[in-house]
Design a protein that fits this description.
By secondary structure, the protein is α/β, with parallel strands linked by helices. It has helices at about 45-60, 100-105, 115-125, 185-190, 190-205, 210-215, 225-230, 235-260, 275-290, 295, 310-320; strands at about 10-15, 20-25, 35-40, 65-75, 80, 85, 95-100, 110-115, 135-140, 145-150, 155, 265-270, 300-305. The protein is globular and about 60 Å long. The structure holds zinc ion (ZN).
């Protein structure tokens, strides 16, 4: 958008398993959104479409003097090159939800759609922790694991748009069940869901006073954030659970390094907001497990810069880069 378009803005919407986050921004200032909307994620394509329309409408109402140029939608699922959501185990949105076309028609503005982690990495490449890097692996640790890859400074999309889903690499044969319906996926172990399971097992196995204090007294109620809070408070059992968990995270990252030889491994998602209590153990397990770690000198494992707004910001930047409408 040129100088004559100073009153124009773009909207990016991040559709996650639990929350829909919309940001309106001037693409020249991605770190300072003009307006933000956050609502719960509904179930089903019809309701999701209605919520997306209402989030965009709410953002537009807050910027009455400016003109909306385009909308980008980042969705937690497999989104093809045409902006059609093909697979989304956490959204119950059906088998082929044509996000870009349906929203474009409903909103009467150009709409583009992509995988949420692809959007997040695009934001990090443009103006975040991956700025100036060409070869990057990104993993967002939350309820599941979102993933994205960059090569030559661009997000790698693959033959169909489905590249960069490391959360569903099988790392344990016949292992723990995954939300995708298969077993032993990396995300079954190295996500918030995996940490919760490790925490519940530890709390059931023996004395776990500090951890159970966090979880309201019952081993069955232990969640990932309880383990992290108890570990941050110095509880030895929770620290041991987190060290174990960090090893699962690092196993997947080390596999990705063997495959892709990145300059940078970038970690995002809600879990990394816990800070060094998680990142410390992850970095040390990662350094231990990467093939030829000493000899190759890295790569560093760093925390993404845009935090919870990464995918929404990247979706908005994607929209700004495609002002003519959906690709293809
Ligand atoms: Zn899976």
């Amino acid at each position: 958008m040129g100088e004559q378009d100073a009153d124009r803005y773009v909207i990016g919407v991040d559709v996650g398993g639990t929350k829909v986050l919309g940001v309106a921004l001037d693409p020249a200032q991605p770190h300072e959104p003009l307006a933000v909307e956050l609502v719960p994620t509904p179930r089903g394509a019809e309701r999701l479409e209605a919520v997306l329309v209402s989030v965009v409408a709410a953002l537009r109402r807050r910027l009455p003097a400016r003109r909306l140029a385009a909308v980008g939608i980042g969705v937690a699922g497999l989104v093809d090159h045409r902006g059609v959501l093909r697979v989304a185990p956490n959204l119950e949105a059906g088998e082929a939800f044509d996000v870009a076309s349906r929203l474009g028609a409903a909103l009467d503005v150009p709409v583009v759609a992509d995988n949420d982690a692809n959007c997040a990495l695009a934001a990090e490449l443009a103006a975040g922790a991956a700025r100036g890097r060409d070869e990057v692996v990104y993993a967002a640790l939350g309820t599941g694991i979102g993933g994205a890859l960059a090569s030559g400074g661009r997000v790698v999309r693959g033959a169909n748009g489905f590249a960069g889903e490391p959360g569903h690499m099988t790392i344990v044969r016949d292992g723990w069940p995954c939300a995708c319906g298969r077993q032993g996926c990396w995300e079954a172990y190295a996500s918030g869901t995996g940490l919760a399971r490790l925490g519940r097992e530890a709390a059931s196995a023996g004395p776990a006073v500090a951890l159970l204090d966090q979880a309201g007294g019952s081993p069955g109620l232990v969640r990932g954030e309880h383990v992290m809070a108890a570990a941050a408070g110095g509880d030895p059992l929770s620290c041991a659970v987190l060290t174990d968990f960090a090893r699962w995270v690092a196993i997947g990252l080390a596999n990705l390094v063997s495959l892709l030889d990145p300059q940078l491994v970038l970690l995002g998602g809600s879990m990394v907001e816990a800070g060094e209590v998680l990142m410390g153990p992850v970095r040390s397990a990662f350094a231990e497990l990467v093939l030829g770690s000493d000899e190759r000198g890295g790569p560093p494992a760093e925390v993404a810069a845009f935090g919870a707004r990464a995918a929404a910001t990247g979706a908005a930047l994607l929209a700004a880069a495609h002002p003519a409408g959906p690709a293809g």
